[in-house]
Amino acid sequence: MVDKMTKNLILCLSPKAGLLITGLISTTLLSGALFFQYVIGLAPCNLCIWQRWPHVLVMIFSLLGLVGIHPKKMLFLIFSAGIASTSLGIYHAGIEWQLWAGPSSCSLNIDPQDSISNITDQLLNTALMRCDEVPWALFGISMAGWNALISLDIVAASILALRKVVR
């Protein structure tokens, strides 16, 4: 049987640990994205860039909380950014899996019945890196999918740390 102290450790993180863990997760994810872009040469699409911003916010909020500036508020903001990152990752992965259409500036949906001038306009207005293609995957999960899954850890860690603050 699990004693009360062990149960509290499992169900809660200290605010400082939550801030540190969430900041490290976002730093790792953003570093990985930049590694793929600048070292491997895998150019990001527009949605890939959008998915980076919540991680920048998590890193900033984590640092602010760790230096003592409203840790509870920072954890709530981190939770919100984690939800945003997870949502963007799911949205992008759904586009890659053709579950729904992506933004017209990032996806290519050519109608063969369109005129040549409409098709040409669409090609010229579509980003070079398309959001509806999977440029890299691990175990069948794209980078957008991994971002969604790992961003759930940010959400979970912030919730566990907030539980400690609320008690």
Overview of this structure, please?
Helix 2 runs parallel beside helix 4 and helix 3 packs antiparallel against helix 4. The chain is 68% helix and 2% strand. The chain has a two-stranded antiparallel ribbon.
Percent of sequence in beta strands: under 5%
| Uncertain parts | none
Which word captures the global form?
Answer: elongated
Note the main sheet.
2 strands, antiparallel
User: Cα-atom Rg, whole angstroms?
Assistant: 19 Å
Mean pLDDT: 82
The helix-and-strand class reads: mainly alpha
User: Strand order, biggest sheet?
Assistant: 1-2
Succession of helices and strands: HHHHHEEH
Task: Count all strands and give the number.
Answer: 2
Characteristic terms for this protein:
mainly alpha, 2 strands, 2% strand
Task: Report a brief summary of the structure.
The chain has about 170 residues and is mostly helical.
